[in-house]
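Design request, tokens follow.
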């Protein structure tokens, strides 16, 4: 099972549906970012990850709706978190 499958399973399980998921991968094409987003990752970082970029992502408020689970990042959260994946595209 790849990371996309793991993310989907985590999102489908009520116990882990609200977990914060950040993809850290060597793949950074728009298609890879789209697939990460569709699988349920909140953010998509491409290796090698800059430690400052990782810290910014970890400091960003989670984009989870506590009632319904995962919510894709909004443009507002994107402005606050410049490394976030929004609608499958990076804003770095």
């Amino acid at each position: 099972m790849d990371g996309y499958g793991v993310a989907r399973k985590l999102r489908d399980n009520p116990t882990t549906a609200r977990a914060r998921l950040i993809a850290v991968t060597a793949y950074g094409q728009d298609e890879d970012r789209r697939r990460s987003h569709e699988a349920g990752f909140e953010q998509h970082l491409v290796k090698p990850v800059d430690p400052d970029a990782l810290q910014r992502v970890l400091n960003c408020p989670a984009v989870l709706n506590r009632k319904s689970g995962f919510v894709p990042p909004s443009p507002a959260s994107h402005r606050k978190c410049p490394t976030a994946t929004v609608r499958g595209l990076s804003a770095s």
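Comment from the thread starter after seeing the answer: thanks! The domain at 3-85 is CATH 3.40.50.2300 (Rossmann fold).
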